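#lab-general

N.A. 3:47 PM
ok so I finally got the sequence cleaned up, no stray characters, all 434 residues accounted for. can someone with queue access submit it? mine expired

B.Y. 3:52 PM
send it over

N.A. 3:53 PM
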Amino acid sequence: MRCSKCNTDNTEGAKFCVECGTPFSPRCLKCGAESVAQAKFCGECGAAFSAAVSAPVAETSQVQPGEASGERRHLTVLFSDLVGSTEISAHLDPEEFRELVADYHRAATEAVTRFGGYVAKYLGDGILAYFGWPEAHDNDAERAGRAGLAIVEAVRELNRRAAVNRPKLSVRVGIDSGTVVVGKGGGSESEVFGDTANIASRVQSAADPDTVVVTPTVNRLVSGLFVVEERGAHQLKGLAEPVDLYRIVRLSSVRNRLAASIVRGLTPFVGRDDETQLLCSRWERASEGEGQVLLIVGEPGIGKSRLVRQFRKQLVSKPHLWIECAGSPYFQNTPFYPIAEMLQLNFARRADDSDATKLSELERALELAGLKLAEAVPLIATMLNLPVGEKYSPLDALPGATTQTADDNPRRLAVRRGAVGRDGGRRSALVRRV
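B.Y. 4:20 PM
back already:
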């Protein structure tokens, strides 16, 4: 028997070549079956003899070279979790607890998506949301702060609408912002790599019930846009150094980032002489009793808000009442939102005040303004999402009449509250910025 590899003669019946050790009857490395010497493939399983056969392993998804590098970006992470969910579940049937958590998930998800966030994961009764991925905005930290306040308010609303025997829910929200890498790991879904999500979770655990707490990084990004309370330094699990935490109480009276940046200082106002002169001339006409309406149009960032601010500075020494309303892309489907926001800022309500306290404050303000409580309270309380219970009956009016009344009462309230100074003297002109 001649070896096909080294051409050496071997005795009949030999299984291996005495010169080079080549097997005369190759054994399949995959299934172990013997084949004839000239075979290129196993007759039992079809495996090739010319290549080494590896042991069978479970199939895994292949990570492409471009995906392995990931995408580096700035991300704001919000983590929201129910308080005392273990204790609540112990007193409820599993089906009832599932419905309760599902209601919370729906309310929190609606709040996150309303402000442009992305719910990445549902972790039991917790929610992990990203602001800045997959869609990035220039104000993701502000959006996350607004979403956190909306989640707390949504849970309060769930408690108001819940059955008497249903447990009351409380929620904690933690927010952090930092640099992460977004890409695929071992699975097919994109994941976020970095400590931002972990820190947001730790911050949430250090928050009090029904509060939104942020890190110093987030606090710097939203400076001036929210009313913030310092919570002191906290030692968070997994971090070597204590972290200063801040509680977001509510939105501030600042409506845009230009007003918020005033605290840090603005660059000198240069140019716009023609536009400023036009505004001043229209002001003189308005002071003489001739009403004026001006529309300022321009590309984003061109300086419209800065021009209006400069004009307002020139009116400081002149008696007037400045009423400012602003729309928001977050509340496009909310009727009367600019008016409702103006009223909330005018009353300077605390978010953690009880409904009874808020209603009492509203009644006192409306009474001082000389408005009829039976007509004004139901309408304005509705715009403020403030329940009135059975104390006031709903107005029986046509939709058109209701709209007219709802638009007129807040305007009369704002003018009456602001048109008389503390010294009793009346101010001469009204400037409305919408």
